[in-house]
Specification:
The chain is α/β, with parallel strands linked by helices and 288 residues long. About 5% of the residues have low confidence. The structure holds flavin-adenine dinucleotide and FE2/S2 (inorganic) cluster (FES). FE2/S2 (inorganic) cluster binds next to loops.
Length: 288
Amino acid sequence: MKNPLTPIKAIIKDIRPEAEGVKTYTLSTEFSFVAEPGQFNMIGYPGVGEAPISLSAIMQVGDSTLRDGSFKHTIKSVGRVTDFLKDFKKGDELFFRGPYGRGWPVKKAEKRDVLIIAGGLGLAPLRPVIHLILNSRESFGDVSLIYGARNEKNMLFMDEFKIWEKDISLYITVDEVSDVSKSPHPPFTKEWSGGINVGLVTDLLDRVKIKPERVIAFVCGPEIMMRFICRGLMMHGMSQSSLYVSLERRMKCGIAQCGHCQHSGLFVCKDGPVFSYKEVRGLPDGVL
Ligand SMILES: Cc1cc2nc3c(=O)[nH]c(=O)nc-3n(C[C@H](O)[C@H](O)[C@H](O)COP(=O)(O)OP(=O)(O)OC[C@H]3O[C@@H](n4cnc5c(N)ncnc54)[C@H](O)[C@@H]3O)c2cc1C
Ligand code: FES
């Protein structure tokens, strides 16, 4: 029987600078890789280690660039593994295990309004949800994306906003406006119909028309942000079971064997990383 911890080789087909310290890697392997929005891979290199990284694009969503079964990870360089990856080039090999975990309940969102709320790097695991909705737009009600980053240099996927906003409402905010001349992106103009706001993601909740009985919300970002967003949405009348969050915990095996990711009896790697707010609110080792 194949050892589930044996890594699989992948070739880097493309690397794209995404934001400050963040790159998106397009990977391919010898088989067609299929996963669900919100799942993750353990990405690594022998002798260096592994880190859990969400899929930021997958074949299932019908992205025309991914018909060959390739997949994407958007990675911020913060430590041992991610720093090692940052010098990789197109054509290099790296290793992965996965896909793992329980992703966003997209089926449950069909025929409902969908609120996608992300902070910073939290947009990466939600991008496959956006792609899937765009590919099957008639299956969903009103769809809104509220996205905030510290400044435009930290914002992901800006070049896709114009495409997204044709079918979903975009609410974009930055905590601060930095020097646009140093931005890796084109100048941060008010090109999107919602314009650019300055302030916290939570400030934008009042701008969206929320029909609590119809809406489902997918939230990903720093835990403290998710806490305030979920509480804000509950004040708009939403129930805890219609709110979903994605949790980050340190992981080792990714398959519920080592216990590293345990969160009050839940295995974040297997039972999550996506949980309903009802499942994880108030657990002692979190801030939700
Ligand atoms: C389900 C899931 C999905 C994720 N998706 C993404 C993604 O899409 N993109 C992405 O960039 N990241 C993602 N992450 C986060 C990523 O896995 C972590 O940042 C990971 O720690 C990076 O590994 P590293 O070896 O590069 O960094 P590490 O060496 O693990 O260091 C990461 C940070 O943790 C600190 N640290 C190191 N050791 C410890 C310790 N023992 N205790 C506490 N803090 C410590 C370091 O100082 C540093 O700030 C995800 C995490 C999870 C759980
Ligand atoms: S990472 Fe080992 S149990 Fe979750």
